[in-house]
């Protein structure tokens, strides 16, 4: 082998070794960067877990400690009562404004219910619950609407049923962020709720009441919405067509 | 220290580790698919269970299972897991028994599993954004599918099964040899966890 060839081969070898070193150095830098990213992610996860635990916990204690103010027409059990207190039939409806089947129930029966209440045959007790907050992409639609209904019940009880019907008529899809506060207030005004009452929705006056009564209702063994009780008995018939419920109410009335 | 690192490095690229991880992940995935399939059948037999909205379930399989995304192809998605995961388990077990599959076979497995991963992540994103509910078995599928994909890709790069041009193959091999794929997978899984925790953290504790 000539000296020239030998030099060339050594140069080649050196170059390859240098390239390898560069590669190694780069890999080490990438590994370090990756390690930093992993560390940051871990910290972010822990922080967000602590935040979540903190806010979750404080919400529960806030709700249980605050003496929740109840709407004027609220029952002790957490319902908004409409109609003649001496009516022969007590009809309890457990609902969540985000629950699609509650919407179907309302669509099928609202006309009949309005009539039965107006006739003095039924005392209607609405339980606006807020347990589907997780279905509204963080906007807590169930809580906001339940609070709005409670506000109307407190200050403009005459418009309660109309507002209830309007909320279901414009029910948002499950999983969407729901109607905005302004849209809810607009629905209320159209249903005959005075402006100042609709404006008070955003004060969230009855949110603690909604929270405590939702918790109280689930402790009584209610398992889902819509649940309808006639004089304390769960109605097991068809909730989604007009007629069967009216018939059951009429039967209970006759007894 | 250096010896220990070298040994760890060797273990991570060994058949036992790779196919062992693949086997465990595929078994988890299969178990989750099985539970989800049974749930889907139960829901189909008694739609009443989904009629009333689920309560006290911050984490709700029912909500996810009744979404249209859960039956994209007209049957419960989990059936796909019941079909595909046993194949992965077979590959993993056979490979642990020193069977060598032909290149085209492993390449085909990679292609099909990549489609599976894409589907799993589409479902995950739907569950996060559109459905708005969390389903623990679905999350298990997401994570274990990721791990199977990672190990399968690792094996195929190591053994040169991917029919890559030689420069790309060399680069991929260097990437894996430097254990950068492990870092990538760790970041990937942590991002997943962070996404779930930030979106649903309050619900988990509420």
TrEMBL record, chain A:
Coiled-coil annotated residue ranges, if any: none
Domain Thioredoxin-like fold: 79-238
Segments for region (Disordered): 1-24
Single GO MF annotation: oxidoreductase activity
TM stretches of this protein: 29-50
Alphabetic keyword roster: Disulfide bond, Membrane, Oxidoreductase, Redox-active center, Signal, Transmembrane, Transmembrane helix
Basic and acidic residues bias (residue ranges): 8-21
SUPFAM superfamilies, per the entry: Thioredoxin-like (SSF52833)
Similarity comment: Belongs to the thioredoxin family. DsbA subfamily.
Protein's recorded name: Thioredoxin-like fold domain-containing protein
High-level lineage: Bacteria, Bacillati, Actinomycetota, Actinomycetes, Streptosporangiales
